[in-house]
Amino acid sequence: MATAAPKKKDGIWETVKTIFWALVIAGIFRTLFFQPFWIPSGSMKDTLLIGDFLFVNKMAYGYSAHSCPFSMCPISGRILEREPQRGEVAVFRHPTRNVDFIKRVIGLPGDTIQMRGGRLWINGEPAPTAPVGDFIEIKEQQGPQGLIPRCINDPVPEGGQCIKERFTETLPGGNSHDVLNIMDGWVADDTPTFTVPAGQYFFMGDNRDNSEDSRFPAEIGGLGFVPSEFLIGRADRIMFSSAGRSLLYFWTWRSDRFFKAVE
């Protein structure tokens, strides 16, 4: 009996050390390679819904000042191992507001981008679109901010069906995704032609009439072009999704969005 207590204490201590180092390794792995992101707004509907929880692949494009932890990487510029591809969904740091945004890569360096009558033009050519059926959701408060969706069939009472037109848009290179339309003649349905500078990117939200993106220049308080050093990573897969006011409300999790690929 005299030797039982020390052995038991040693066993507990070893367990504590194992758990500690496991947490440290998991923390380093998370910091270096992945970053959690919770979708706070509806600017990327219907690809991403308010309450989607995903991990951002921070190694997708290489290192930057905003993807590197603890000043482990150069802070001037980005080591761009792979250029973002047109059509990918990426997370980046807003160049002037110091907050993270998530949008779709639309324009690469050297591209010309324009909206004409709500339709996207890239390098002088319209991106093909095809109607695929309306996107319908309930008009109610969404997420912790209690955001109310806008509808093409407004006015819609609370609890009613909120409708948006939905189209499949195909970008140069063949990547396709859904985009939504809430109203014709919106402020950003017609824009000047933007030429994307070297080392920068043009981003847009899929919910075209409800997205603050590169169509709004930085000079007037918008997003503007995003330099490569502000890229954080690529959104690859939704882990789970909550339709409630908190991620902890597991009874509001959407069963059809577990491990759903972001396309």
UniProtKB/TrEMBL annotation:
Q: Which Pfam families match?
A: Peptidase_S26
- Positions of the Peptidase S26 domain: 13-239
Biological-process GO terms, alphabetical: signal peptide processing
Q: Which residues form the active site?
A: 43, 103
Q: What GO terms are given for molecular function?
A: serine-type endopeptidase activity; signal peptidase activity
EC number(s) in its UniProt entry?
3.4.21.89
Quote the subcellular location field of this record.
Membrane
Q: Which GO terms describe its cellular component?
A: membrane
Which PROSITE patterns does this UniProt record tie to the protein? SPASE_I_2, SPASE_I_3
Reactions accelerated catalytically: Cleavage of hydrophobic, N-terminal signal or leader sequences from secreted and periplasmic proteins
Q: Does the keyword Plastid apply?
A: no
Q: How does it sit in the membrane?
A: Single-pass type II membrane protein
Principal localisation: membrane
Instruction: Tell me the keywords, alphabetical order.
Output: Hydrolase, Membrane, Protease, Transmembrane, Transmembrane helix
Q: Where are the transmembrane segments?
A: 19-39
Give the UniProt family note. Answer: Belongs to the peptidase S26 family.
PANTHER family membership: CHLOROPLAST PROCESSING PEPTIDASE, SIGNAL PEPTIDASE I
What is the designated name of this protein? Signal peptidase I
Organism annotation: Paracoccus hibiscisoli
